[in-house]
């Protein structure tokens, strides 16, 4: 999803503190599962989340972090694309992102500035990232850091169709902060951010897919 670190960045996708997952291991931990359950259960009046359990991998090599997240979701590619590429409104549904806006666009090439913070409670670090984004319509979004608080930042979202209304979303990122993160903002904080943000993104996609389905039904009745 990336100084948001999202995705994400974006996207800067994000995810759940993984105290049980050892460095370099790959599968979603209990923390990621709990983050997903918490997001899906916030409003019992709405249908529960329909996306598959999120798979999270986080590795740290010195000061560099390598991230991987994926899940499957019931939505069409158009809905997924419109959510991933909604750069001016990502901060409305991505936790930890305070602002996101398009600086310039030339066809499939977009420059996006994002601001946010990462950490636990009072132990937080603010960040800004300027991203050069390259779009492949309904297929992928790649982003490279060209300014801000990272010595290196690369991220990519991939949309893999599994059926008419079932899609796998894959997020990969590598980033190197401009200075070493203190332990409290290190591996566990990055894991927490990844799971939380990625699951928030999936929840927004599902919300939009449900809304689109309701609107289509109302137009036909």
Write up what this structure looks like:
This protein is of the alpha+beta class. The chain has helices spanning 30-40, 77-84, 187-220; strands spanning 6-7, 10-12, 55-61, 64-73, 97-106, 109-120, 123-136, 140-148, 150-163, 166-177. It has an 8-stranded antiparallel beta sheet with strand order 3-4-10-9-8-7-6-5, covered by helices on one side. The chain is globular. The termini are far apart.
- pLDDT < 50 stretches: 1-39, 41-48, 216-221
Q: What CATH architecture do you see?
A: 2-Layer Sandwich
Strand order of the largest sheet: 3-4-10-9-8-7-6-5
| Number of separate strands | 10
Helix share bin: 10-25%
Give the helix tally.
3
Integer tally of domains: 1
Q: Calculate the mean pLDDT score and round it.
A: 77
Shape field: globular
Distance between the termini: 37 Å
Q: Please report the first level of CATH classification, the CATH class.
A: Alpha Beta
Q: What is the strand content?
A: 35-45%
CATH superfamily: START domain
Give helix and strand order, one letter per element, not per position: EEHEEHEEEEEEH
Return the CATH topology: Alpha-D-Glucose-1,6-Bisphosphate, Chain A, domain 4
Please tell me how large the radius of gyration is: 16 Å
Largest sheet: 8 strands, antiparallel
Going by helix content, strand content and strand pairing, the class is alpha+beta
């Amino acid at each position: 999803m990336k100084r948001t670190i999202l995705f994400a960045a974006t996207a800067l996708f994000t995810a759940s503190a993984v105290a049980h997952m050892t460095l370099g291991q790959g599968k979603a931990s209990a923390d990621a599962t709990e983050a997903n359950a918490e997001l899906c259960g916030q409003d019992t009046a709405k249908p529960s989340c329909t996306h598959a359990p999120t798979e999270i991998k986080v590795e740290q090599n010195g000061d560099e972090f390598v991230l991987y997240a994926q899940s499957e979701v019931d939505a069409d590619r158009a809905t997924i694309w419109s959510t991933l590429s909604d750069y001016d409104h990502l901060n409305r549904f991505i936790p930890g992102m305070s602002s996101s806006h398009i600086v310039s666009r030339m066809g499939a090439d977009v420059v996006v500035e994002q601001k946010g913070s990462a950490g636990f409670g009072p132990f937080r670090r603010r960040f800004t990232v300027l991203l050069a984004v390259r779009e492949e319509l309904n297929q992928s979004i790649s982003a490279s850091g060209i300014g801000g608080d990272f010595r290196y930042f690369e991220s990519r979202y991939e949309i893999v169709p599994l059926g008419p209304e079932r899609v796998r979303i894959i997020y990969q990122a590598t980033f190197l902060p401009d200075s070493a993160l203190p332990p409290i903002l290190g591996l566990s904080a990055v894991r927490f951010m990844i799971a939380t943000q990625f699951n928030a993104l999936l929840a927004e996609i599902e919300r939009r897919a449900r809304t689109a389905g309701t609107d289509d039904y109302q137009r036909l009745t």
